[in-house]
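Justification of computing resources. Each target in the renewal requires a structure prediction run like the one illustrated here; the chain below, 263 residues long, is used simply to show the kind of job we budget for.
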Amino acid sequence: MAPHELATLYAQLKTEFSAVNPDLQKCGQLLSKLKVGLVQAGLFLPQGDTNLDDLIITREILEIGAFWSIRAKDVPSFDRYFSQLQTFYNDFSSILPPSPRQYPVQGLNLIRLLTQNRIADFHTTLESLPPDALSSNPFIIHPVNLERWLMEGSYSKVWSAREEAPAEEYKFFVDSLMGTIRNEIASCEETAYDSLPVSEAAALLFFKSSNDLIQFAHQRAWQVDLLNQTVLFVRKDEEKVAIPKQKMIVAALEYAKELEQIV
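Resulting structure tokens:
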């Protein structure tokens, strides 16, 4: 691919992705073409002496790709873009100017680790970041707070954090976290209650409407009494273990007789 073609595709991607309502399908197509061009130009995995401006542009393309992946709800794609960016964030950090997108991307990766319950990786990643980022950067503070609230069981704070997300893409992972939290709360409700009013069950599960709760109830095979506005929790019958009393008594007597003979 000729350099001018690469430049044209890059300009088109920046224009489309920064639009109010970007065409995600078109962005994906442009990213695919750009990655081919970057490979051909030796910029996808740069080695040796490489033009500084080319490195900056390549980094920006990959960062846009990471954000596009979240908007397209493609987590594996985000993982690949994040992995590819590590070369630019680590190996070329001494020669490249700081990227305004670096902490937002790293913050997204931290929340991704939380959604996958990879707590050890989460803390290892935190340790690799500058100390001032942990205390002052909103893109890093947000996932740090989420992890603390999850460990405390402060699920209402996790839910509130959705509206306080420093970037729109963060809400995708917070929603994923809330899905996990809802299932945990639902399991507790099934154990603790026979039934609950629809309004109370919806509040406990952080649903804004009864319709959302009803859809969730169907997924868990709960019964919803619309007339009485009640959710009935379906429980599996506890297995009853029959105790063979007569056999136990006979065995005990035989054991007693054997003890007498020994004495």
